[in-house]
Amino acid sequence: MAGAATAGMVPRMRARNTSDDEGGFATFAACQPGLEPLVAAELAALDAVPRAMAGGVAFDADAASIQRAGLWLGCASHVLVRLAEFPCRALGELERKASDLPWSDWLRGEVPFSIRATTKASRIYHTGAVAERVGNAIRSVTGSQPAASGDDDQDVAHVTVRFRNDVCAISLDATSSPLHRRGYRLASA
Questions:
Q1: What is the CA radius of gyration of the chain?
Q2: Whose CA is closest to 65, among 73, 76, 55, 54?
Q3: Mean pLDDT of the region 74-90
Q4: How much is the pTM?
Q5: Residues 128-155: pLDDT tens digits?
Q6: CB atoms within 10 A of CB 150
Q7: d(CA 75, CA 72)
Q8: Which of 61, 79, 66 is nearest to 22 (CA)?
Q9: Contact 108, 58 (CB under 8 A)
Q10: Which domains, from first to last, does the chain contain?
Q11: Tell me, what DSSP letter sits at residue 146?
Q12: Average pLDDT of every residue of the chain
């Protein structure tokens, strides 16, 4: 991946030639604990090769498969497309590595973004500082601004940053809002 091949960084999203191999994007269908086998079965029915793990199911997908997953998964809450995964133990290092990512390949400058950060068992534990540093990186590359609190979810790019055991995983939320809000359950009783 051009621009992201820095020391210690393992980029995870770059379109591969889908005619030569199975898929193009490292993708993760997040779900509630215990629903992983159901999500894996749903993905298998969509011709994906699922790999169940704690909190969801990983699979490789092209753009059409990601759209199908967002449309047909009933047990998943979000479909996340992995942009990068790299070891990180300091906020300055996080901002530097996030700035090296080709954000303009994934985000348009005129679309605001929001960042959701989580940390567990890592030296970096302040989620607000994580969101700020990744936001700085996105702004420096694309010129886009963070979303205002009242912005409609459909007009915002959602970025997820997850730290676990000093490894940072940055993903784009391909579903924007949770899948249970798709609107097909209009009547309630």
A1: 17
A2: 73
A3: 95
A4: 0.80
A5: 999 999 999 999 999 989 988 755 556 8
A6: 5
A7: 9
A8: 61
A9: no
A10: 1-82 (3.30.2130.30), 88-173 (3.30.2130.30)
A11: B
A12: 85
